[in-house]
Amino acid sequence: MTKNIPPLPPFDPTPVVRNAADMHRQWRILMGEWGFAERTLWFTFIAPDGEVVKVLQQIAQIPLKPDTRTLDNVITACTEFLASSAIEDGSAAFLLSRPGSAQFTSSDRAWASGLVKAAKRGNLRLQPIHLATDDDVRVFAADDLID
To answer: Domain containing 49: what range?
Structure first.
């Protein structure tokens, strides 16, 4: 079976994220060619001027459903990183990757909505949350996050 996989966007050594489309493009570049063997949570940081901080973290083999403690710990780590890097007004960008189709699952929604809720509790600004699968990179719209 042949997939209609779009080519990767050109690499930008100094990317700037000004809007949701820029963030989507950045995740598409970072994720490279399609195909994931396990569920992973990826995150990076965006400075207030839109510059992408040269840090990309991952938490591999995440469970199907997140727990509040794990989510709060991730958000705390992000907040502390931004504060220690003197970019307190920056934001965090999250992407969930997993094998399979690009259709959102209840697990995907649980992770995305859990991250949004934890970020609110932790006073962390977020970029739109994305999902990368074997088929596509998608953004979670607000109505996708309804439990």
So the answer is: 20-142
